[in-house]
Amino acid sequence: MDLLAIIPARGSSKGIPRKNVRLLAGKPLIAYTIENAQKAKSVKRVVVSTDDPEIATISKQYGAEVIIRPPEISGDTAPSEAALLHVLDKLSSTEGYKPDLLVFLQCTSPLTLPEDIDGTVQVLLEEDADSALTVTPFYHFLWRRDESGNAVGINHDKRVRLPRQQIEPQYLETGAVYVMRTEGFLKAKHRFFGKTVMYVMPPERCLEIDDPVDFKIAEVLLRERYRQEQLNLLPKHIEALVLDFDGVITDNKVIVTQNGQEAVVCNRSDGWGLCQLRAMGLPILVLSTEQNPVVQARCDKLQIACKYGVQDKLRALQEWLAEHALNPAHVIYVGNDVNDLSCMRFVGCGVAVADAHPELLSTATIVLRAKGGHGAVRELADMILERLKGGSNNAEGC
After folding, report:
1. CB 92: neighbour CB atoms within 10 A?
2. What span, in angstroms and rounded, lies between the C-alpha atoms of 296 and 225?
3. pLDDT of 398
4. Which pLDDT score is estimated for 390?
5. CA–CA gap between residue 208 and residue 174 (Å, rounded)
6. Chunked in runs of 10, what are the mean pLDDT values of the chain (398 residues)?
7. Quick count: other Cβ atoms within 10 Å of Cβ 186?
8. What is the model's pLDDT at position 46?
9. Strand 131-138 to 196-200 pairing
10. What is the dihedral of CA 388, 25, 77, 81, to 10 degrees?
11. Which residues are CB-neighbours of 97 under 8 A, at least 6 positions away?
12. What is the b/e burial string over 96-115, where b = at least 16 CB atoms within 10 angstroms of the residue's CB?
């Protein structure tokens, strides 16, 4: 079965100017929907419908196809269905392509997960429905004013206040995911036709970005989600932390004086994080091919083990782990360049700094948000500390 995901994204937005490309937790808003669509197991193809060159460029950067929408269906009053129909017509006329199912995704719902997309598709198929939407449980009381200005209950009798457990289930449309059988949609030209079914999303994933405050809420929720995801990727039992030096503890730059002496810049926040880990009894090793004794000097200050001037990093790592009877599966290794790959693959959890070589970024279990020498070590240390919480925080000599 062929499933096409279409993401309508206009360039104009009155409530929040340039909303669809505004950065949210470090990425354009539309990027979240594109990535979730690509990760959904059921979706075969992702197309963004837009009238805006910047949205088109960003969408392509994140791997989506783009179909430019004409001005007459790009205004504030144009329904989303018009964009969906335009994409289907374009693909049919140019490629002879018509998917079995159409997945309509709103780029204003960044908290949606791939499983929500797949779940909505699945409920449509399992219940042999024609259209489906995502909803979330709703237990609030709605009111309106009558002609005399009196407050009147809409979904309840104001004389009877039932406890939540006795309220008949109601559901709020999330605006995140809609699934339709393409043939029926082309006839109805509306997202709800025939038998319509619901996929229930948990409330914590239901947020539409309509107002500036929604961006702030989404930022908090996305960063917390990211933190939890990264924590879950750490080994359940952590026995040691091993780090490269240049590009991890430093920013990968070197200062050379006129008489040939070299110096590097380290981040004190990173040092404090390492000292916190050391104080909790976690074995730490800095492993570097750098010949300069500045590596040893920094490690001496932090009171952590160091091996520098190493030519075969993997062998040195294996020897150190064997010497301390440490299980590689329970070890974290942090690197930034290709000479760290063998060590990263040997241990249970390979970590790359944000500005690492592309090959490390694709290999790492965890990719940190911070760059080397700019708080990356502290970012990881805080995660490890949370996993090891309960130990001593008496970090000295940092």
Report:
1. 13
2. 37
3. 58
4. 47
5. 7
6. 96 84 93 97 97 96 96 89 97 96 96 97 98 95 94 91 85 97 97 97 93 93 90 93 96 86 90 94 95 92 94 96 96 96 96 96 94 96 87 48
7. 16
8. 98
9. parallel
10. -60
11. 91
12. eeebebbbbbbbbbbbbbbb
Residue showing tokens 């204003």? 108
- Radius of gyration of the chain from its Cα atoms, rounded to whole angstroms: 27
Here the tokens at position 162 are 């039932």
pLDDT at 12: 80
Q: What is the pTM of this model?
A: 0.79
Contact in structure between 68 and 50 (CB atoms under 8 Å): yes
Q: Annotate the chain with three-state secondary structure.
A: CCEEEEEEECCCCCCCCCHHHCEECCEEHHHHHHHHHHHCCCCCEEEEEECCHHHHHHHHHCCCEEEECCHHHCCCCCCHHHHHHHHHHHHHHHHCCCCCEEEEECCCCCCCCHHHHHHHHHHHHHCCCCEEEEEEEECCCCEEECCCCCEEECCCCCCCCCCHHHCCCEEEEEEEEEEEEHHHHHHHCCCCCCCEEEEECCHHHCCCCCCHHHHHHHHHHHHHHHHHHHHHHCCCCCCEEEECCCCCCECCCCEECCCCCEECCECHHHHHHHHHHHHCCCCEEEECCCCCCHHHHHHHHHCCEEECCCCCHHHHHHHHHHHCCCCHHHEEEEECCHHHHHHHHHCCEEEECCCCCHHHHHHCCEECCCCCCCCHHHHHHHHHHHHCCCCCCCCCCC
Within 10 A of 329 (CB to CB), how many other CB atoms are there?
A: 12
115 residue type, one letter: E
